[in-house]
Amino acid sequence: MENVLEVKNVEKYYGNKSNLTKAIDNISFTCQKGEFIGIMGASGSGKTTLLNCISTIDRVTAGTIVINGKDITKLKGNNINKFRREELGFIFQDFNLLDTLTAFENIALALTIQKVKPHEIEERVKEVAKKLEITDILNKYPYQISGGQKQRVASARAIITNPELILADEPTGSLDSKSARQLLESFETLNQKLNATILMVTHDSFTASYANRILFIKDGKIFNELVKGNDTRKQFFEKIIEVQTLLGGELGDVI
User: Which of 108, 112, 172, 244 could form a disulfide with 180 if both were Cys (CB 3.0 to 4.6 A apart)?
Assistant: First the structure.
């Protein structure tokens, strides 16, 4: 299997010499094409910083991050923007949809920027909308749809450009339990049927149980790793809870 993501000896420091904080402490791991990886850890553990470095929002202090064969730690200026636009998909807790655009237009925006032909845009939007079961809301504006529907629109927007890697930051954080379950089932569809590669930061063990592998971060380092393997989601969920206990408590009051 090819590696979509390779994180090699990454370190990230904040502050100056008199007040230096090490947010990431020599983390290394790989993510193969088609994997669905969850990242969990206590508040301040470094998990969000790690995601920010992988997403090119932040820069590493040391080490390398390679996505689709490109060392993103060496990219600068417009090259970073181009890479982020073409190779990465983003799903945020607060949706980040544009209120003045319909669901269709929000999903299509990235393709419009890439100057894809209108008829192809329409075909691709309809195709992904069908897979995520949002065809009936494409002409509605964000204020007219539920939180769960907004997040599925955001998911459609994230994958419409066929990115190498989808980065999800607390994607169920603003959703009720029913909407969260529907979104996670959509993630399963993206991962299993479209072979999408997903890296997700979450504080919620139920959300994490939908992933295939979990990396637990503590004090800037990888503390533990769980692989779902042949476990049922319930069995995997129980193992996640066990590791949470080792981390020092319920993740409900840490991430």
Answer: 172
